[in-house]
């Protein structure tokens, strides 16, 4: 379980196919950090198609649900730990007597509950309010403290390099996701892990590049978390560039899609090549840290993301605003010069039809699309000339949660 570069051959990923936990997000997208509501049935098929595409290209795809359910069925010791986790998670409300009785019943009955139901309880986190309305009969009002609607964005809870760095999520809606993924990495996969405790760090802000890595900071990962990450012992790179994720000059600080994570405007499809909004990369500040013989990092210089990579000999494929805002950079690299990419033209048409953007942004997007004459990423002229092998897939529904193929996959092994 090791990753040194984004272009290394992708061997294994963990994914989570979204289930009933996203129902609430369809009714109230913004509080659940979604961009827009979407058709769950279509989105589920899109996710399965992404899974199948990866398998067809030699990638081992582990679904989070299967990992937990299968382990609980095979190993009694893991099943016991899962039961204990659920017992601590489920809350009862009511009279002291009714709560105590309910807890005892659950403790007695949980051994009969199948592993799939235990997994669903894990991501729904139910609370049960008990009120007696006739003698001896209680009316159960069920709440879900916070169903983990964003769990299918499996990139963000952790980052893998020389081990697994378990992040700390900035948004409260996502904080408990790392409890589940850390449980899987430690108890099922037996991985070397380290946890972020002081700052905030999310996996979508980490991109490994061979002898250096990039860490984005801003909307989700902060500088404290980035520094904690590079000193964790998990990121064994001679150099680290800590990037301040930028915005377009006409935007205020609330457009989370532009600068939520590094991978929302930047990605690497091949050694020495970057696909990004060059406009954003030119203004993204980059602090370059180098490691001494004792393993300590110190800042060496400050530049921009664009200038730093240009100095490393990188070539750039530019994304216009219409492409960047439709998740074009959120592709998944399978190997050097081979990627799985979103059909961004379908996404942007859906976003425009649903009036997601303000008037100013919308006008800039339409103008950019006109300049491209319909040839958007990954069908652009620049991509055709690049020699990159592209597998284009439709993720136009499921991206409504704010993320593409890169966000939906936790890459855990590349060679």
Automatic annotation (TrEMBL):
Keywords tagged on the record: Hydrolase
Listed transmembrane segments: none
Pfam entry (one): ADI
GO-annotated molecular function: arginine deiminase activity
Record-level GO BP terms: L-arginine deiminase pathway
Name of the featured protein: Arginine deiminase
Native organism: Ferroplasma acidiphilum
Upper taxonomic lineage: Archaea, Methanobacteriati, Thermoplasmatota, Thermoplasmata, Thermoplasmatales
């Amino acid at each position: 379980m090791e990753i040194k570069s984004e272009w290394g051959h992708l061997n294994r990923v963990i994914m989570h196919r979204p289930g009933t936990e996203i129902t609430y997000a369809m009714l109230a997208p913004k509080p659940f950090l979604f961009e827009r509501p979407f058709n769950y049935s279509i989105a589920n098929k899109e996710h399965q198609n992404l899974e199948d595409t990866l398998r067809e290209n030699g990638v081992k795809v582990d679904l989070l649900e299967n990992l937990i359910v299968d382990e609980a069925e095979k190993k009694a010791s893991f099943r016991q730990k899962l039961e204990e986790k659920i017992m601590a998670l489920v809350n009862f409300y009511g009279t002291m007597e009714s709560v105590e009785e309910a807890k005892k019943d659950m403790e007695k009955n949980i051994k009969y509950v199948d592993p799939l139901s235990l997994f669903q309880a894990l991501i729904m986190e139910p609370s049960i309010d008990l009120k007696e309305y006739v003698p001896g009969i209680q009316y159960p009002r069920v709440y879900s403290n916070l169903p983990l609607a964003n769990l299918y964005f499996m990139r963000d809870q952790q980052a893998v390099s020389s081990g697994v760095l378990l992040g700390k999520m900035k948004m409260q809606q996502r904080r408990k996701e790392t409890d589940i993924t850390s449980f899987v990495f430690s108890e099922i996969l037996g991985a070397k892990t380290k946890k972020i405790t002081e700052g905030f760090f999310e996996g979508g802000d980490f991109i490994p590049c061979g002898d250096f890595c990039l860490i984005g900071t801003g909307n989700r990962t902060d500088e404290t978390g980035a520094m904690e990450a590079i000193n964790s012992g998990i990121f064994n790179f001679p150099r680290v560039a800590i990037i301040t994720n930028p915005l377009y000059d006409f935007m205020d600080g609330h457009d989370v899609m532009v600068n939520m994570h590094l991978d929302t405007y930047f990605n690497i499809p091949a050694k020495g090549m970057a696909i990004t909004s060059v406009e954003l990369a030119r203004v993204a500040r980059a602090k370059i840290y180098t490691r001494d013989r004792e393993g300590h990092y110190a800042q060496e210089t400050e530049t921009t993301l664009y200038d730093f990579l240009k100095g490393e000999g990188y070539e750039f494929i530019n994304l216009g605003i219409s492409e960047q805002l439709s998740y074009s950079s959120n592709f998944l690299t399978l190997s050097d010069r081979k990627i799985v990419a979103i059909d961004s033209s379908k996404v942007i048409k859906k976003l425009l039809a649903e009036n997601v953007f303000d008037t100013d942004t919308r006008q800039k997007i339409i103008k950019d699309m006109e300049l491209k004459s319909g040839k958007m990423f990954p069908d652009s002229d620049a991509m055709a000339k690049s020699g990159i092998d592209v597998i284009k897939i439709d993720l136009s529904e499921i991206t409504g949660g704010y993320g593409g193929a890169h966000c939906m996959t936790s890459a855990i092994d590349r060679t």
